[in-house]
Amino acid sequence: MEDSGIAGEKFARLVEILDVLRSEEGCPWDREQDEKTITNFFLEEVYEAVEALYSQDYASLAEELGDVMMEVVFLARIAREKKKFTISDILEGINNKMIRRHPHVFGNANQKDSARVRQVWNEQKQAEKERESALDGITKSNPALLTAFQVGMRVSSFGFDWSHPMDVLQKVKEEVAELEKAIQRKQEEEIFDEIGDILFSLANLSRHFDVNPEIALREANKKFMRRFQYVEKKIKQEDRDWGQVSLEEMDRIWEEAKEQE
Question: What is the pTM of this model?
Fold first, then answer.
């Protein structure tokens, strides 16, 4: 197990480095940054960490997690300058929350079922934040697919969920059938609604398989782009224009790309 004392010393060193960078004798660029600019970098680093994780590139993951941690400390430093909170406040808050939200570990509660543990977590969270609805607090700026995933997670902890993944898959099929009917009727509003219903159902199907649909879609995008770039490269190597290549030929090259992967 890693020595917590050594890790603590290294974390304290990172705090000291940010203090120096933000001081009058520090870096002009670092001193110019504010919450908004750092938030942009923070999001970028989080996505890069996620990409390294799904690529199982642990060397890059360690580096990217360090970048994420640096942005957290940077934001805490800015908040301290404004006398809002400190890094110590952040750590104390999360420590207390983890203990409070795990009464079955740090208290006398007897909750060994993971579903019940999650339900109690959400109930405590809702009470602590004085939320009227279990859906309050979902970030409005989230991508829509991620929001659908989070909505499903929230309501499932209260028992409002399909009992089996195949039930969700059946719901997806039903939504696809409804989309087909809307297309046949050429009803644009219905088509719009049904496509939304399909995406929502797919997000919940993903949840039942512990797959984050936002990340899965990002990976699918990367895969498509990689294979299409292979098609582009092959056509260029053959010194042909797109208008000279049939769809059947493009499909053949696409299959080549899939086989190489």
Answer: 0.61
